[in-house]
């Protein structure tokens, strides 16, 4: 019998229910693990719910999984202490990201960052001359970010934010889509609020990457907090289904400090991890910024212009 806090769900892209099991569950299927532990925003809890793959379209996802109300409760109330310690490094990543965005939208304009956490990206975009706004369900992160960086952050669920239609030049999702119960609804809502010709930028841990294939169930990104596991094909299918034109899917490089990265490596090899943390501290290199590729990909998509374009 399925615990009442859990449910079976259909594929979020094609609606089909026929799946095969990829990884068995390693977590209790009840409430013995607190939702704020399961859904801590960035500091991934260990283990995974059962991961299945849709036999029709190939989307991989957690199923059965906790009902959406519990997931939202987890995100709203979780306290993540490690996330903000990496502000400087995350901002380095975002400085490169904003330059990529400006290749598509050189005239800049109105930018909305969904799931903006403590507003690091908003701060970087604002400094680069963008008119920014953020949405973040985690109350602690939203309050902290708005005060620290003087950026507007709505502490809400994006889907109930009632934002203006066709108002934004750019919408971004950093480390978000794999977390939300209904990714299709997020992409659809992004399409509604973007101006015609506006761009959507998002990153996702690429389940089809060699690293993901090679590390199997030990993959860094396999976590109860990630309820969808996209690859290049399924992210494209999702974007096209919601009327976006996919422009490009790139490898996404990030920056974190050497010590933090060694700490993360504990999932693979505890000895290397501990030695690495100790060594980097000893050599005064704990905070050394390191650019790394951890099987993240970035998708760039455009809301097509309408057939009638005033500028022509
Ligand atoms: Zn499917």
Descriptive report:
The protein has 312 residues and is α/β, with parallel strands linked by helices. The chain folds into two domains: 72 residues, no CATH class; 189 residues, Rossmann fold. Helices cover 31% and strands 22% of the residues. The strands form four sheets. A seven-stranded mixed β-sheet has the order 8-7-6-9-10-15-12, with helices on both faces. The chain is globular and about 50 Å long. The protein starts with 5 loop residues before the first strand and ends in a 10-residue tail after the last strand. The C terminus is likely disordered. The site of zinc ion has 8 residues, from loops. Zinc ion binds next to loops.
What is the CA-based Rg, rounded? 19 Å
In quaternary terms, these chains amount to single chain
Bound small molecules, by name, code or SMILES, are:
zinc ion
Largest sheet: 7 strands, mixed
Architecture per CATH nomenclature, i.e. the level-2 architecture of the largest domain: 3-Layer(aba) Sandwich
CATH topology name of the largest domain, in short, is Rossmann fold
> Which CATH class of the largest domain applies here?
Alpha Beta
- What is the count of β-strands? 15
Which strands sit side by side, in order, in the main sheet? 8-7-6-9-10-15-12
Structural class: alpha/beta
Shape: globular
Mean residue pLDDT: 88
What's the total helix number? Answer: 10
| Number of spatially distinct domains | 2
Low-confidence stretches: 308-312
């Amino acid at each position: 019998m399925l615990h009442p806090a859990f449910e079976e769900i259909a594929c979020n892209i094609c609606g089909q229910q026929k799946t095969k099991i990829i990884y068995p569950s390693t977590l209790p299927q009840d409430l013995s693990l607190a939702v704020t532990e399961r859904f801590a925003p960035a500091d991934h809890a260990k283990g995974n719910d059962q991961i299945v793959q849709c036999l029709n379209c190939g989307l991989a996802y957690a199923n059965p999984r906790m009902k959406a109300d519990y997931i939202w409760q987890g995100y709203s109330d979780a306290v993540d202490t490690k996330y903000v310690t990496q502000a400087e490094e995350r901002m380095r990543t975002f400085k490169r990201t904003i330059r990529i965005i400006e290749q598509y939208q050189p005239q800049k304009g109105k930018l909305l960052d969904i799931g903006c956490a403590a507003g690091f990206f908003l701060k970087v975009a604002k400094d680069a001359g963008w008119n920014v706004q953020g949405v973040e369900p985690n109350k602690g992160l939203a309050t902290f970010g708005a005060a620290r960086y003087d950026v507007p952050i709505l502490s809400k669920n994006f889907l109930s934010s009632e934002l203006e239609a066709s108002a934004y030049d750019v919408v971004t999702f950093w480390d978000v889509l794999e977390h939300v119960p209904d990714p299709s609804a997020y992409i659809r809502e992004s399409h509604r609020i973007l101006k015609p010709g506006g761009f959507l930028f998002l990153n996702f841990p690429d389940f089809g990457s060699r690293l993901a294939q090679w590390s199997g169930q030990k993959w860094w990104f396999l976590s109860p907090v990630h309820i969808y596991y996209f690859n290049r094909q399924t992210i494209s299918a999702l974007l096209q289904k919601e009327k976006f034109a996919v422009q490009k899917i790139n490898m996404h490089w990030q920056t974190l400090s050497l010590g933090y990265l060694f700490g993360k490596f504990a999932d693979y090899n505890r000895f290397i991890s501990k030695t690495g943390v100790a060594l980097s501290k000893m050599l005064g290199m704990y905070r050394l910024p390191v650019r790394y590729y951890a099987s993240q990909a970035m998708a760039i998509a455009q809301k097509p212009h309408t057939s009638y374009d005033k500028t022509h």
